[in-house]
Amino acid sequence: MLSWPEQVVRVQSLSESGIRTIPNQYIKPLTERSVFKPGSQVHQHADIPVIDLHNLFHKDPALHLDTLSRISAACRDWGFFQAVNHGVSHELMGRACQVWRDFFNLPLEMRQEYANTPATYEGYGSRLGVEKGAILDWSDYFFLHYLPVSLRNQNKWPEQPSSCREVVAEYGGEVVKLCRMLLRAMSTDLGLEEKHIENAFGGDNMGACLRVNMYPKCPQPELTLGLSSHSDPGGITILLPDRGLARLQVLKDGDWITVNPVPDSLIVIVGDQIQVLSNAIYKSVEHRVMVSSAKDGVSLAMFFNPKSDLVIEPAKEVVSEERPPLYEAMTFDRYRLHMRMKGPCGKARLESLKFNTP
Ligand code: OGA
Ligand code: NI
């Protein structure tokens, strides 16, 4: 699919036009709206996991094991956690967020130079999925490849603001280090060799992409979503939420829970490929983003994915007669196609991979 099915409308332009009501194409069915209550409570202050990573490599085995067991519980029970003392410089996080705010504040013509297509999604975009007439999310984004180096093309990254390419490179480098550390901790906890997940994802050829989400102000936030319910298709996501904004909701035991970001934290999200590789010992988390009439928001989501042509399947070590493989083996390329065609659809894609047990 080489082009979008409909004329692309920048949500930011819609928002800035001063409309008081949103176009029908952004109005979600009642049951998908974030204020929809019956049967599914929306909690504000649930006890969501916050993990201090400082002791992950502490020489004292008790401190190390304590951190590992917290990561383990969060990945098994929630599929996500907020990380503090994660090693990524807070100052750099601030700069990365600011440079992208500045990008979205550039004149529209300058942003349009990077307009993307569904062929690779790289660049400036306003929709996921190519179905004509689909209900859209209230957001724009910028998507780029960071790893493998063979896919990294800085000419596709914004030239303005002038520090953008440099800041993205620096931020990416630090987040990659954090990601590798987490994948090692997860492998160890799952009883796999320390580098198992990294190697299964392609080692140095592992994929890493950055999606910067821009959620403009919305005159009728209760009717729509910034990002519809989905689980991340890849391995893990490291999300830098906008400062002080509680917009992200995660689904836990049937309830939508609003995440109040801890200052300077990064949010770690377990994706579908880790659920497959761990044979569902770890769960990917279904999540969505609300919008507000008072404030726009920018978030940076760094996705770590298997190299696109590698086949991912439940690891032999986590499969047994009592616990047979739950999922069909599939390359990440094929897996991701679903989201790229249909847009976000909860965990439907992962469910479709399940073997039909009689
Ligand atoms: C994503 C995502 C959440 C956010 O980009 O996949 O879930 O807060 N983002 O922007
Ligand atoms: Ni996501």
Automatic annotation (TrEMBL):
It comes from the Eukaryota. Residues 205-306 form the Fe2OG dioxygenase domain. The keyword Iron applies. SUPFAM superfamilies: Clavaminate synthase-like. Keywords: Iron, Metal-binding, Oxidoreductase. InterPro entries: DIOX_N, IPNS-like_FE2OG_OXY, IPNS-like_sf, Oxoglu/Fe-dep_dioxygenase_dom, Plant_2OG-oxidoreductases. Belongs to the iron/ascorbate-dependent oxidoreductase family. This is Fe2OG dioxygenase domain-containing protein. It comes from Hibiscus sabdariffa (roselle).
